Amino acid sequence: MKKLRWAMDGGFWDLDVSTPVTMDGVARPAPPEGAVLPLGLSRGTRLSRPKQIDFMQRFMSAPFVPSYSGHPSNGGNGLSLQRVLTFSFGENWFTTLLGQFNVQKFVSSIRENGLLQLSDSSWLQSIRRHLGNKSLYALGYCSELLVTPDDTVLLGLEAYGDNKTPRKKVVFHHKFPNHNLTAEAVWPGLYVDKLGTYWELPLSMAVDIASVCSDSGASYHLCIHNNAGSPKSFETNGQNHGVPAALLPGLCVKSAFSFKKNIDIWRSNAQKLRMVQPYDIFSSSPHILASAIIGGVASASIGDNAVDVSQGFRGSFQGRGVKSAFLADMFASVSFSAQYGNFQRLFLDLTRFYGRLDFPSASKILSGSTRLAQDMYNNQRPDMEAVQAICPNASFSLQQQIGGPFSFRVDSQVRVDLKNREWPICVDEPIFAMEYALQVLGSAKAIAWYSPKHQEFMVELRFFET
């Protein structure tokens, strides 16, 4: 589930994608071929996966946390249960052991061997033998050390009993007064492309520095990313196709600058219920808001990931064993948000809608507009590919309170395919979620979401999403 927040910051900065495929619950998106967006490592406020599960065990009486990542027949892991053990060494050092048990593989093995027809003693012995199967288990180790109030180091290790490659991660965070610095090394790194296929990269290293986001104003972003080794398809339910060029070995430097403007069209001044705390303080003010972002981005690549494209301001060089490319472009985003209700009453006191139009490539729009103008000037039928090129990427989110702290939410993208005359506009990658607002924490929620396209289900915590 992408972090499609109510805050109108466009689809260019928040990159983390929640997924139950890995123990830490995160995958990074791979940019499409010839695209310079998305950027870097920028992520929103998020607890690590072990800390989320520890919170659910302690304060939500959840002995196990379930997840689902595709049917095993399609390469997925099926239904799994997770539980965590925590070890705290003072106030600055936090260590966890996250265990995962694959319930679906266990039940399938019992059915295949016909254990239900055995006697009680034989049945129990077979159950113990199947529980000893290492492929049913996975173990994740995570250690987070607060070196100083502004410096954090995170070490992670994932080991799987079904002979999957162990996953290792080292992350360093530093908070400057007006910037955030992140350095990360993951081997192998997990990426997901536009079609939903997961890819493993033997070694992924990145350094990212970004200005602290504000409600309105300018911001900038710089990321240095290095890939090593040949990527391979991860065993999931996605369809296998060509490797994204951005994941090929090489060094890439990206830089972006943007300006954001928020406009309050209307905000309610009506009196709220006295002595009644909202279920979420960030969802307690009816409003109608609009936002716009415009910016520019440049990318320079050296190595196999340097691919010359036909869009944008570009250049390429290929020498003896050296391959490089440069690409610059502009992007923009327009969004709209509306809310009714204060989220204080027991029933139907919150209705929220969020819509966003992203224009990731100004050069692509300019090229498509030029081709359309030429077709109109020559009295020719408009080229559908040119019309498609000027169409923005659309996404929306709708949330409705059902009762008390429970609300239902739908996130989706809208895809335009003019070649399909019967259904030129369709809903793409819908995600259905049930949210439970943790009222005592001011603005926190437990979310259980399901993605029909990827066949993934996950329960997670999110804090301070506006």
Written description of the protein model:
The protein has 466 residues and is mostly beta strands. It has 5 helices and 24 strands. The protein has an 18-stranded antiparallel β-barrel. A 5-stranded mixed sheet has the order 1-2-10-11-14, with no helix packed on it.
The overall pLDDT average reads: 83
In terms of per-residue confidence, which ranges show pLDDT below 50 for 5 or more consecutive residues?
A: 3-10, 40-45
Biggest sheet descriptor: 18 strands, antiparallel, barrel
Order of helices and strands: EEHEEEHHEEEEEEEEEEEEEEHHEEEEE
- How far apart are the termini? 16 Å
Please summarize what this structure is.
The protein has 466 residues and is mainly beta. It has five helices and 24 strands.
